[in-house]
Specification:
Elements lengths: L3 E3 L2 E4 L4 E6 L9 E7 L6 E6 L6 E3 L7 E6 L4 E6 L8 E9 L5 E4 L3 E6 L1
Parallel strand pairs: 2-11
Antiparallel strand pairs: 1-3, 3-8, 4-5, 4-9, 5-6, 7-8, 9-10, 9-11
Length: 118
């Protein structure tokens, strides 16, 4: 069971990208889904989190107003729309699935690279 990220790439400052996280092997709507990122030499940081049915979202301060996360439970997929990208957004972006329903479980994706050129 591992979520799979896609959509990363190279973009210029001010550009946009949309990341996807496709999940399988678990009941998607029972899991809160999150995006994390890790830049070289830095700790992994929370980018955004969305509740199981998408009613609630939260964002890290560096991305508020620029990034939007949403999910389509019919497709078992979560998305991260990234606008007004900055060089400091350059990082590997990871998808995380977390639940406490029936016990605590957590799954990580393998990550997708986002590079923003200045």
């Amino acid at each position: 069971v591992q979520p799979v990220e896609s959509g990363g790439g190279l973009v210029q400052t001010g550009g946009s990208l949309r990341l996807s996280c496709a999940a399988s092997g678990f009941t998607f709507s029972s899991y809160a889904m999150s995006w994390y990122r890790q830049a070289p030499g830095k700790e992994r940081e929370l980018v955004a989190v969305i509740s199981g049915f998408g009613a609630s979202t939260n964002y890290g301060d560096p991305v508020k107003g620029r990034f939007t996360t949403y999910r389509d439970n019919r497709k078992n997929t979560m998305y991260l729309q990234m606008n007004s990208l900055k060089p400091e957004d350059t990082a590997v972006y990871y998808c995380n699935a977390h639940t406490v329903v029936g016990g605590t479980r957590m799954y990580w994706g393998q990550g997708t690279q986002v590079t923003v050129s200045s």
